[in-house]
Design a protein that fits this description.
This is Circadian clock KaiB family protein. InterPro entries: KaiB-like, KaiB_domain, Thioredoxin-like_sf. By secondary structure, this protein is an alpha/beta fold. The protein folds into 2 domains: 138 residues, no CATH class; 82 residues, Glutaredoxin, CATH 3.40.30.10. The strands form 2 sheets. A 7-stranded mixed beta sheet has the order 1-7-3-2-4-5-6. It starts with a strand and ends in a 5-residue tail after the last helix.
Length: 244
């Protein structure tokens, strides 16, 4: 088992990201900056050789802990929250965050649209490494990161194309879209094609009402275009490759 422990400050915010297989990557930040979830996903991508950062693990496979002094009493306060899929790892979380036998981990509310087990399972074929246990416990350090400027995720696009079966229309849509992306995007992209007939649960969770629908999952905010993907200018606007 790979263990990477450093001194933990008394006051900090800690974020942990697990894989379905049980590997753990986490961070401890005394300055309580943002974007750590993005860094953890990028760290998993690099560690496991994934084709893109596994943003779909957030928030379902995460846990957070915050330690601060109450402004009036100056008593140490601790707030810890864990999502249901990783509640079994509370002892490990206590170990990496050095919180002893802390028992007050709160179970985070389960938003179906953000962590549907059926939807998460559809990523297994694309990210098999995440469902394997590599006995990894890795602490991600700030070195090399600029929290105000997320690294790997912002240099590429994560796209989903929802279609109705694989037919001639779908093939033409894919061909024209692929050509457009190759010629017009200045950054790498990942395009996942989802057949709503085979995966109706994904269509429902993504609020797909018609096909084809192209969804830009990353960079955020999420954007989508429904129907006419032959309108090159409109597609590029939705992707953010040109100004709206």
């Amino acid at each position: 088992m790979t263990q990477y422990q450093l001194h933990i400050p008394q006051l900090f915010k800690g974020i942990a990201l697990f894989t379905p297989g049980g590997d753990l990557i986490y961070c401890i930040d005394s300055t309580k900056q943002n974007h750590w979830h993005l860094h953890l996903c990028a760290g998993l991508q690099e560690m496991l050789g994934l084709q893109e950062p596994p943003h779909f693990l957030v928030p379902a496979y995460t846990a957070t802990i915050d330690r601060w002094f109450a402004p009036y009493t100056q008593e140490l306060q601790v707030a810890a929250e864990v999502y249901p899929p990783v509640r079994r790892h509370q002892a490990l979380l206590n170990g990496v965050f050095q919180t002893g036998d802390w028992q007050n981990w709160q179970i985070a509310p389960w938003p179906p649209e953000l962590g549907d087990p059926i939807v998460l399972e559809t990523y297994r074929d694309q990210f098999p490494q995440l469902w394997e246990n590599h006995d990894l416990i890795v602490r991600l350090e700030r070195t090399g990161f600029q929290p105000s400027l997320p690294t790997v995720p912002t240099r590429g696009y994560v796209l989903r194309l929802f279609v109705s079966g694989h037919n001639g229309t779908t093939e033409r849509t894919l061909q024209s879209l692929h050509q457009l992306l190759e010629q017009s995007l200045g950054h790498p992209y990942t395009l996942k094609v989802i057949d709503i007939f085979k995966h109706p649960e994904q269509a429902e969770s993504n609020h797909i009402s018609a096909t084809p629908t192209l969804v830009r999952v990353w960079p955020q905010p999420v954007r989508r275009i429904v129907g006419d993907l032959d309108n090159i200018e409109r597609v590029l606007q939705v992707l953010g490759a040109v100004d709206l």
